């Protein structure tokens, strides 16, 4: 009887060890921002988001705000290695996507786009945009929660920041919604609904105003 108990304890110890190793591997699965193409979207975004959050950065190289956000995402990827970060040129994802409508950040989970964040290429997204700002912006969506629970799937917001100094001389660093940010419904659906013929078409513009 004693031999069976010892065998059981040995098996349990090995199982627990393997489980801890698997957990550690899951926590350190990614750690970088990966470049993808349009043909990779289903595999690297929809499929990969079945068991973790996938953050997709739509960018253009010539836009400074995209470069700033890129740097922040690299830092975030190193800190949260269980999350998957990818980037793709906006016009590679959606044909004719306007340069003044980037950067854009899509948040995917369970194979679906849960949240979308739109940024302006104006002075409000300056070089003082920090990793702490980005964390503050993303935390309400629940992507850092161990349970990976989601919030309202219809939420959208701008990630421009107002870094004005308040009356006490302190930097507010509070999220500031844009009053001029508009996207057409075709552009919103094209990038994440897997339509191979998705294009930006101003003639089909159905404005979504974020105030």
From TrEMBL:
**InterPro entries linked:** Phosducin-like_chap/apop_reg, Phosducin_thioredoxin-like_dom, Thioredoxin-like_sf
Cellular component GO terms, alphabetical: cytoplasm
**Listed Basic and acidic residues bias regions:** 191-202
Q: Which Gene3D superfamilies match?
A: Glutaredoxin (3.40.30.10)
- Give residue ranges for domain Phosducin: 25-161
Q: How far does the signal peptide extend, from start to end residue?
A: none
Q: Which SUPFAM superfamilies match?
A: Thioredoxin-like (SSF52833)
Matches recorded under PANTHER family: VIRAL IAP-ASSOCIATED FACTOR HOMOLOG
What is the recorded name of this protein? Phosducin domain-containing protein
Naturally occurring in which organism (per UniProt): Aureoumbra lagunensis
